[in-house]
Amino acid sequence: MKRNILITGGAGFIGSHVVRLFVTKYPDYQIVNLDALTYAGNLENLLDVKDLPNYIFEKGDITDETFIDQLFGKYQFDGVIHLAAESHVDRSIMDPLAFIRTNVMGTAVLLNTARKHWKDNMDNKLFYHVSTDEVYGSLGAEGFFHETTAYDPRSPYSASKASSDHFVMAYHHTYHLPAIISNCSNNYGSHHFPEKLIPLAIHNIKNNKPVPVYGKGENVRDWLYVNDHARAIDTIFHKGRIGETYNIGGFNEWKNIDLIQLLCRIMDKKLGRPEGTSAQLITFVKDRAGHDLRYAIDASKLNKELGWEPSLQFEEGLEKTVDWYLSNEEWLQHVTSGNYQNYYQEQYQKR
Ligand code: NAD
Ligand code: DAU
């Protein structure tokens, strides 16, 4: 079946994996990747698929109503997979309005444009919004986030994502826009921008720089390999029920400090350093403001209804990730030159 699909945010971390999966797995689909190429967007993420005949890149901003309207007119999309966002919690603490603009306003512009272009025929259309488990807030030592857990966002990032989720469901209920949301836990893997914990730690360990761990490193995250997230998005896009929310997670909780210790051991092995060398770089720094203690996703609905499950054990995924970073030195150099240095200074110098 031929389809015209808009993927937003496809030159970022998760989006590039989703684009790669769709253009290679579905040669009959035309995939349009729309991305503003902010600091987090990088066309080098898609060098291997950029010349495929069913792939098109469009540079543009999701908050630009006129541009988005023209894009829908030009390609007559029947599906949208929306990933474009400001995605880093620490940056949302520095500059919340940028998150409201892109994550709330940008999502609303996309919804409104899809509604306008699809209003006479909603058959076989789908607006799929890729969201986060952070909308549910923070857990104590016990329990999981379920699809029915009440929203309780606590950072400007998660509040902006929660707001965008509410707009998606409001458009579904009010205008019958066919929509689905998924809320995923922390991803890791290749092409992850080194502002986030795992790639930042890999980069610093490699360069013998301090590895900053917020607070006491007691916070817990539930890690999922990015290719497994992309597979889940594929499954939900094709088999998910309209109007539903699906939680995606790895049943793979790690305290930050334990994760960093494991990463240090892997790095020692890969770099041929005596065991314990990299761990000496661990440096406890001032905690993140409003730092959520624990995230843990119950992904059993997705498993029971649609048969998805994670494919990799964490240690295997982490080794593959380290291997990718060590053999893609040029990628890392490109993304850490220029503005990255300014961000790093501002974020870490006073901690
Ligand atoms: P990312 O920061 O790596 O990529 C975001 C992409 O969006 C970039 O390519 C950027 O250029 C683009 N973008 C930003 N603002 C834009 C705008 N105004 N117009 C058009 N493009 C714009 O993010 P990611 O980690 O790949 O996350 C992708 C999506 O998945 C986000 O919606 C995020 O909330 C969600 N998510 C991420 C994780 C995770 O662990 N990284 C987990 C769950 C959900
Ligand atoms: O849960 C899903 C979310 O996961 C996504 O929605 C976000 O887009 C994504 O960025 C991620 O958010 P986190 O804040 O959990 O990820 P981050 O990699 O920034 O931090 C992971 C944990 O590590 C968190 O407890 C904060 C801590 N941390 C982070 C950095 C950058 C440190 O201890 N030191 C650091 O330098």
Automatic annotation (TrEMBL):
<dbReference type="Pfam" id="PF16363">
    <property type="entry name" value="GDP_Man_Dehyd"/>
</dbReference>
<feature type="domain" description="NAD(P)-binding">
    <location>
        <begin position="6"/>
        <end position="321"/>
    </location>
</feature>
<dbReference type="GO" id="GO:0008460">
    <property type="term" value="F:dTDP-glucose 4,6-dehydratase activity"/>
</dbReference>
<keyword id="KW-0456">Lyase</keyword>
<keyword id="KW-0520">NAD</keyword>
<dbReference type="InterPro" id="IPR005888">
    <property type="entry name" value="dTDP_Gluc_deHydtase"/>
</dbReference>
<comment type="similarity">
    <text>Belongs to the NAD(P)-dependent epimerase/dehydratase family. dTDP-glucose dehydratase subfamily.</text>
</comment>
<dbReference type="InterPro" id="IPR016040">
    <property type="entry name" value="NAD(P)-bd_dom"/>
</dbReference>
<dbReference type="InterPro" id="IPR036291">
    <property type="entry name" value="NAD(P)-bd_dom_sf"/>
</dbReference>
<protein>
    <recommendedName>
        <fullName>dTDP-glucose 4,6-dehydratase</fullName>
        <ecNumber>4.2.1.46</ecNumber>
    </recommendedName>
</protein>
